[in-house]
Amino acid sequence: MKEFGRPNVFDVDPRAIEAHALFFQGEVEDWRIYRQEFGEKLQAKRIVRMMKDGKPHHIVWLERDGVDEKSGTQYKFHQAACSCIVRASNPQDMEPMRNCQAWLDGKIARAIEVKENGNSALFQQMVETYQNFDGTYDQKIRDADKVHQA
To answer: How far apart, in whole angstroms, are the C-alpha atoms of residue 37 and residue 35?
Structure first.
């Protein structure tokens, strides 16, 4: 029986533990602590290891759960993020990451991984979401998928 207030470590995906440990370091850990002060809970679910300028620049899939500071509305959503997120002005601000090539490439790598794992529906959903991103990004995923299959 699980005690209240204590997580059952057997219920935790080891990939989430790795993602949390690798992503929340340095200024990103400082940012996580800052967001906690506003009552936001951040959980890294998956990680794609990327490089930027010769240094690790990992991409994670975050679960963000909190209350909007201005409206008081509760939110819970998933977000692909990289360490550029520390420059975001609010939880929905994606602008700092949109200019990050590692973030873009990491999202493509994750989409292909999802398809390889047999989840065609989620892969298609990712393609459609990315199509709304800039109108060309979905094609980049399709092109990368073709190269990967060859």
So the answer is: 5
For residues 10 and 64, is the Cβ–Cβ distance under 8 A?
Answer: no
Could you read off the pLDDT of 33-69 as tens digits, one per residue?
Answer: 999 998 899 999 888 888 888 888 888 888 889 988 8
User: Residues near 67 by Cβ (< 8 Å), separated by ≥ 6?
Assistant: 38, 39, 40, 73, 74, 75
24 and 47 Cβ atoms separated by less than 8 Å: no
DSSP string, 61-101: EEEEEEE-TTT--EEEEEEEE-GGGGG-SSTT--HHHHT-H
What is the C-alpha to C-alpha distance for residues 78 and 44, in angstroms, rounded to an integer? Answer: 9
- Cα maximum dimension of the chain: 50
| pLDDT over 80 (residue 136) | no
